[in-house]
Design a protein that fits this description.
Layout: H1 6-15, H2 55-61, E1 68-73, E2 80-85, E3 93-97, H3 100-114
Antiparallel strand pairs: 1-2, 2-3
Length: 115
């Protein structure tokens, strides 16, 4: 699958109960200051927090603790393949993306859409 739209990303993070505001509190004096929620650098703070998709943020806010995630190269196509198994269920959720982040995002999107 391709990249999600800004509206899909916003809807996804709202479903995960992550608000769009950056959290700069408690950041020490470093060369770069990072948002504690999304990891973006302060100089890019004009982007809403929910627009950023990275593995750390997906695992922290979206992947259930009991889920098993398998990320690997996609067979017979470019990109990455994600298999998500929730709560040791017999079902696997498959998704594809250009990167690990997008493959995992689309697998979690399928979970969101099913609920």
């Amino acid at each position: 699958m391709g990249k999600p739209t800004d509206e899909q990303i916003k809807e996804f993070w709202e479903w995960c109960r992550v608000d769009e505001y950056h959290d700069w509190t408690g950041i020490g004096d470093t060369e770069y200051e990072y948002c504690k929620k999304c990891g973006c650098v302060l100089e890019f703070a004009d982007l809403p927090c929910h627009t950023l998709i990275n593995l750390d943020k997906l695992f922290k806010y979206a992947v259930p603790e009991d889920a098993e995630v398998r990320l690997r190269p996609a067979k017979n196509m470019s990109g990455r393949h994600c298999v998500l198994i929730l709560d040791k269920s017999p079902w696997e959720i498959d998704a594809f993306g250009e990167t690990n982040e997008l493959a995992l995002f689309w697998a979690l999107w399928k979970v969101k859409e099913a609920k």
